[in-house]
Every structure is written in C-alpha cells, then in structure tokens.
C-alpha cells in the first residue's frame, strides 16, 4: 500500500440481495463502481466471505479479473462463526476466498471476530508462511486480545499488521480504549469501518427521509435519526469550509484521526466522493466541535456482533 492512499473501498453491501442493506444489485451494477475506482487511483478493496456468503468476493473477483494483480490491494477475512468445523477451517475458508477472488494470494487476511484468540491466531501462521497471505489483521478485537495476538505472532517471527474495528463519530470506543494509540506506537494500521454508520452520517437520511422500511439498517437507525439532526447540521457547516459534503466531512474526520477509513461503495458517485477526501484535513477545533456534538447526541451504534471496546 502506498502512503498516499488514504481510503479503503468496502464491499459489505455487494451481493446483499436485500438481506441487510436492502439492495438487490447484481454484478453489472458494480462494474462502473469498480471502473471509477481505477480511474480515481483508489485500489484497496475490503471484502469477506461473510458478506453475502461469498457473493461479495465473487463480484469483486470477476470485476478485477483483468486488472494486473499488483495494481490492486485485496483484503478479505476468516469469520470464526462461519467455519466448517474441520481441523483446516481457516485454510479452507481462505482457499474458497482465493478461488472466488481469482487470485493466489490476498494482501490482507483478517480474523474477523474475537471468538477464540488462542485457537485461531496460531492457525494463520502457516498461511503467512505459505505466501498466500501478505499481511495479517484482526477485526473486532479488544486491546488485550490485540496484544495477545501480537505475542503469538511474534513467537513465530511475524507481527500484527492491522486492526479493523468500528470507528465513527458515534462509536469512538476503540479510541477511548487506547487501541488507536497502541496501533500508532506499534506501527499497526488501523482500518475504520462504519465511519458513515451505514449511511446515517451522509445527510441522505433524516427524520423526513428515513431509511426504507424492510432492511436491517432501517430497524437500527430510523429510531435514532431525531438525535442525529444536530450532528448532521454540524457536519454540513464544518464541511462547507473545506468544500466537502456531509459524508465527505465524516470521512475526513477519520482521515484526520490518522486511520484508514473503509467507505462502503455501491455507486460510482460514492467512489468519486471518497477520492476527494484525502487532500484536506480538519482543524483541531473542528474535530473537537464534531466530537462534542456527537457525544451530546448519545446514540449507541455498537452492533449486535460487536463488543464495547472499553470493557
């Protein structure tokens, strides 16, 4: 990864089939999204077997098939909750991902949830040695778990390269728990997912324009939209000084934090918007203002699959 690249493109909603995000987009829909990313120089893609039970990986693999492999960075994940109960569960899931992604290696492979650090961390070491994984990361892990992963990898001559946790103006528990500081001190990248809270911090949705009923997003966020009104207005005001939209300002908050924001992209416009974020930084005063208003909203967006990183 080049230091100039500050944005990761997320594919959680690819192959969703209406189950979580409420869309039914097929591969043809995502081709202009992928093409826009190439045009804008954004080349880091984050996916997982868990996203659509392999559908997201399949779409990305098909779209990237004609792109020189060295020109893109592919990140995917081992999800313990979906393992096949064999002694080679992690290797089997990786092999399936490699086949769907049409590649013989992934740049980043993550242990998706904390499930059992002692069990799963040692199993990633042979895959690192094989060259099928270039960098190892953990997602949804607490600080104590991250440190333990470091110890296990270190004993085998490897290191933890990245942490991927929920981080947004509405969920700063990874920062409050000291995970961001630990990552900086140990040269570990921090990838922030849900920085836009699945669209709730884009300005597209508000009390008068709620999420469409029938999706999980609507169930989670529609009841919280009244409390988010002031934050959305503040994002708009702060962004105006930098010629940024509401969504771009929320992204820029993460970039200014020094993390790599993962931006979910389901349209070419999403990609183009993300490409504009890297160039500017918010001031300390603007960061403090946004965080104060966000704290005042008091909205808890920790997912059912997540833990409070402060505990």
Could you list some keywords that capture this structure?
single chain, 311 residues, TIM Barrel, eight-stranded parallel barrel
Spatial order of the strands forming the largest sheet: 1-2-3-4-5-6-7-8
Q: Report the span from N to C terminus.
A: 32 Å
Structural class: alpha/beta
Strand percentage lies at 5-15%
- Average pLDDT rating: 94
CATH class: Alpha Beta
Coarse shape: globular
Residue share in helix: 40-55%
Determine Rg (CA atoms, Å). Answer: 19 Å
Corresponding CATH architecture: Alpha-Beta Barrel
Number of helices: 12
Main sheet characteristics: 8 strands, parallel, barrel
CATH superfamily: NADP-dependent oxidoreductase domain
Report the strand count.
Answer: 8
Q: Report the CATH topology name.
A: TIM Barrel
How do the strands and helices of this protein lay out in sequence?
Layout: E1 8-10, H1 27-40, E2 44-46, H2 55-63, E3 73-78, H3 89-101, E4 106-111, H4 117-130, E5 133-139, H5 143-155, E6 162-166, H6 173-176, H7 179-185, E7 189-193, H8 216-221, H9 229-240, H10 246-257, E8 260-264, H11 268-275, H12 284-297
Parallel strand pairs: 1-2, 1-8, 2-3, 3-4, 4-5, 5-6, 6-7, 7-8
Helix pairs in contact: 1-2, 1-11, 2-3, 4-5, 9-10, 9-12
